[in-house]
UniProtKB/TrEMBL annotation:
Record's keyword annotation contains Cytoplasm: no
Protein name (database record): Biotin-dependent carboxylase uncharacterized domain-containing protein
GO molecular function, one term: ATP binding
Entry annotated with the keyword Secreted: no
Keywords of the record: ATP-binding, Hydrolase, Nucleotide-binding
Length: 284
């Protein structure tokens, strides 16, 4: 069992989400950065679908009431175990009673903590991912007890660590494809999409990232259509919205671009004021 001594903004249990329930209006949800989450489970020989703790902007403290093995991946918030710095992207043996803290941000936005066999919170619609209206809680609060299976294996020691490509956090080029309404843009609008460095506005969340730069348009209203995480919508005001993991399943704005899953993962590690450009690929 793991006790939350100090909660941080957006602290939540997440897995790969609810992929089979969009037809009844349930968003996919799940971890924002699937690459980092899968890496944490891989390090511990877990199933890639095992639930992890997603920590946004650090600042939380966890106490381990049982000995276990963990892995920390994603953003680097200077983690320490009982006051001593610990490695990212490697298996860590945690003794009973130890306290894990996250402090100064070095890079990235979201950190993932995996435990052996995953966190054992309640499954709702085949997923443990927290989401408003679907699960009883949307975040993990102070004093919450998170259950994990007791460590049945011998303590393992390893000095090895996985090297994560730096560009996962630093790349300013976001790969995408043309969306269903892309060809309704005029040549100038297409050029603006290709050449503009877009800025993430303060209005960003697990549901979507609004961008500051405008793309003026006079599109007529359209029928509500299916959208996915990574869909880039163009609003009547000219605002672009990049839908993220907690996005709705339908929308009524033109879908001008569609991010790759890798691009969503990279964007999930960016925040207010960060800039990037769209690298538009030819659709297959």
């Amino acid at each position: 069992m793991i006790k939350i001594l100090k909660a941080s903004f957006g602290l939540s249990i997440q897995d790969l989400g609810r992929t089979n329930h969009r037809t009844i209006g349930v968003p996919v949800s799940g971890v924002m950065d699937r690459y980092s989450m899968k890496l944490s489970n891989l390090i511990l020989n877990n199933q890639e679908t095992d639930a992890v703790l997603e920590i946004t902007f650090g600042g939380c403290q966890l106490q381990f009431e049982e000995a276990c093995q963990i892995a920390i991946t994603g953003a680097d918030f200077s983690p320490t175990l009982d006051g001593e710095p610990v490695s990212m992207n490697s298996a860590l043996n945690v003794p009973k009673g130890a306290i894990l803290k996250f402090g100064k941000r070095l890079f990235g936005v979201r950190t993932y903590v995996a435990v052996e066999q995953g966190f054992q919170t309640e499954k709702v619609l085949e997923s443990r991912s927290m989401y408003k209206g679907i699960t009883p809680f949307t975040t993990s609060e102070k004093e919450t007890i998170l259950h994990a299976k007791s460590n049945q294996t011998k303590e393992r020691t390893s000095n090895s660590a996985i090297k994560v490509p730096e560009k996962h956090f630093t790349s300013t080029s976001i790969t995408c494809f043309k969306g269903p309404e892309f060809d309704e843009l005029n040549d100038l609008q297409k050029q603006q999409l290709l050449e503009t460095k877009f800025t993430i506005s303060a209005n960003n969340s697990r549901m979507g990232y609004q961008l500051e730069e405008l793309l003026p348009n006079d599109f007529p209203s359209m029928l509500t259509s299916a959208v996915l995480p990574g869909t880039v919508q163009l609003t009547p005001s000219g605002k672009l919205i990049v839908l993220m993991r907690d996005c709705q399943v339908t929308g009524g704005y033109p879908r001008v671009l569609q991010l790759t899953d890798t691009a969503i993962n990279q964007l999930a590690q960016k925040t207010t004021g960060d800039k990037f450009s769209f690298d538009i690929q030819n659709n297959i």
